[in-house]
Specification:
2 copies of one chain form a homodimer. Chain A is of the alpha/beta class. Chain A folds into 2 domains: 189 residues, Isopropylmalate Dehydrogenase (3-Layer(aba) Sandwich); 130 residues, Isopropylmalate Dehydrogenase (3-Layer(aba) Sandwich). Helices cover 39% and strands 21% of the residues of chain A. Chain A has 12 helices and 12 strands. In chain A, the strands form 2 sheets. The first copy, chain A, has a 10-stranded mixed sheet, with helices on both faces. A two-stranded antiparallel ribbon of chain A has the order 6-7. In chain A, helix 1 crosses helix 10 and helix 8 runs parallel beside helix 9. The longest helix of chain A has 19 residues. Chain A is globular. Chains A and B meet through helix 4, strand 6, strand 7, helix 7 and helix 8 of A and helix 4, strand 6, strand 7, helix 7 and helix 8 of B. Strand 7 of chain A pairs antiparallel with strand 7 of chain B, so a sheet runs across the interface. The complex binds 3-isopropylmalic acid (2 copies). Chains A, B: GO terms for molecular function: tartrate dehydrogenase activity.
């Protein structure tokens, strides 16, 4: 079994956690007997922008080719490039042009991770956030008028299409169907955002008819975030628009201790385009270059990628190694109350796997 | 001292918590020697809609007249009227037409309230959310196209004006200026929502120049919600757009135990129009009619209203009474682990005040 993977480390702590992700992947290839062919790309980072005035070469699709998956770090270095330019010219462009319309993110309280919520134990919090990843509030339609005057204004469309909404709901209902509790929660705000969100609700209601074995409910996003803190045990699969999914998939991991360990898959379910796996966290300029970033978000993303590639055993092996390390306070990084460096933590996990 | 106030109870638990708010206000008038003239309005509720096909009479502005303030419960009864119709025809219309452009909401961990965050004590969490309340993501511009076909789509504009953004930022910077820590946090999402949110950031940066004594920072909304859970102690005043402020002002109170006690002021700072005070919670159809709702959101809103009217001592008296009752587990409502009814809780607070 040989898989081509594209590797893009990005900026900031992306450059520090990526080598740890690779270290663990390589340990997995040795232990589970498969091969990964890595192709590293030196674009989609702000140094590239500084040299070329753009985040990626014009022929980036050709450069990337047809890998089995893309393994991605984190992008953004606002001292060189404003975030909206660096992100729209890299990660957000990849998601859209590769039609990775599912952004899948687990929220799981792991043994050994100090939980900021009082009295919660591993097992109490265990759900998935399914985020629409190509349209909605992340739109490129809009602009500015009366610039520089008192009448200055900016407009930006939120755009939801039936195709875009239905396909993410279908994915979410099917995921819920495979879970023991079979419960889907929809994030809405139809009381306030009164044009797009009632449409979202309508499509949820229509789609639910095709999945009579799945229970479902909906919460407005404001009270939904409140319930992540107050009653995290009630969630099984949570589906949301691009923005709501973005918020919930940072808040969820925070409720389980840190966003430093959370992974994500940007998935093109049809497989016409490569899917992309990356930690939920960003490039974190404030802690970059200090060898203190938690590499587990990157390493757990490696496990998600192997799962996606069909290397289920290797994926499970990585997660067992992660759990083993998390249980030992001395092996944890700073965000989890430990003092291990990024490299030491990555090495412990690779060792646990070998 | 005599004040005219308009009273609108609304739907669901609004009808149950409003009498408790009034009970406590009346106790305050007796103890502090001022007079409130109440005018109750039987519109802005879904029963009114059922009879008249609209939420408020055409001449609602005349009906309400020129009260010193509006005391408001909660609106919405989705079995009769979809939420987006009932809310846009009542609360959201009042906010906009009375130009109540500030929505001010405290986030404070009170003694006696069980905190869902591990290890946090009263004093650790104490900040304000300042929410833009008239524009932004809550817009009425947009629509649906290709209805009923595969190409169906919905569009909705987010609209931010320089006037709208600058005036809320000014209010927030001035509030921060009065606080001991003098720190303003701006909620943004300029890396993803790349047209409107970079504009918001720009205006924050420009406005900050006029307040050199106020420190400020910004967080993207995703990591900001994470930090409400992980580091609530770092916040002093948090300013956000209509949607981000809505989310943060439910999440914040949840982090302090319950949204059942949180109040809000919908304020027209110039005083050309009446301001409106209401609990943060909604009409809660699931628990309505059971006499179990927490009346403290309504009662704390009464205190905010008195503060606004200049009855500072009475406002402080109500808050002391609330704190006295919260410290006694038996006097608390169900959401706070007690078993007191809505009425019993309201009565305890009125008694503590007298
Ligand atoms: C009921 C709803 C429209 C309202 C809002 O979103 O503004 C509520 O959540 C609030 O926070 O006052
Ligand atoms: C960096 C940013 C544009 C991105 C997003 O908002 O999608 C990130 O927060 C994420 O969740 O992957």
């Amino acid at each position: 079994r040989t898989y081509d993977i594209a590797v893009i480390a990005g900026d900031g702590i992306g450059k520090e956690v990526m080598p740890e992700g690779i270290r663990v992947l390589e340990a997995a290839t040795r232990r589970y007997g498969f091969t990964l062919k890595q192709k590293w790309h030196e674009f989609a980072n702000c140094d590239y922008y500084a040299r070329h005035g753009r985040m990626m070469p014009e022929n980036w699709k050709e450069e990337i080719g047809r890998p089995a998956a893309i393994f991605f770090g984190a992008v953004g270095w606002p001292d060189i490039v404003p975030d909206h330019i660096s992100l729209w010219g890299s990660l957000l462009q990849l998601r859209r042009e590769y039609d990775q319309y599912v952004n899948l993110r687990p929220v799981r309280l792991m043994e050994g991770v100090p939980c900021p919520l009082a009295g919660r134990k591993p097992g109490d919090i265990d759900f998935w956030v399914v985020r629409e990843n190509t349209e909605g509030e992340y739109s490129s339609v809009g602009g500015r008028m009366f610039e520089g005057t008192d009448r200055e204004m900016v407009l930006q469309e939120t755009i939801m299409t039936r195709k875009g909404v239905d396909r993410i709901l279908k994915f979410a209902f099917e995921l819920a169907q495979k879970r023991p509790r079979k419960l889907l929660t929809s994030a809405t705000k139809s009381n306030g955002i009164a044009i797009t969100m009632p449409y979202w609700d309508e499509r949820v209601e229509a789609m639910a008819k095709a999945y009579p074995d799945v229970g479902w409910n909906k919460f407005h996003i404001d009270i939904l975030t409140a319930n992540f803190v107050l009653k995290p045990q009630i969630f099984d699969v949570v589906v949301g628009s691009n923005l709501f999914g973005d918020i919930l998939s940072d808040l969820g991991p925070a409720c389980t201790g840190t966003i430093g360990i959370a992974p994500s898959g940007n998935i093109n379910p049809g497989g016409e385009h490569p899917s992309l796996f990356e930690p939920v966290h960003g490039s974190a300029p404030d802690i970059a270059g200090k060898n203190v970033a938690n590499p587990i978000g990157q390493i757990w993303s490696a496990a998600m990628m192997l799962e996606y590639l069909g290397e289920t055993e290797a994926a499970a092996g990585i997660m067992t190694a992660v759990e083993t390390v998390l249980k030992q306070p001395a092996l944890r990084t700073r965000d989890l109350g430990g003092s291990a460096s990024t490299q030491a933590c990555g090495k412990s996990i690779a060792d646990a796997l070998s």
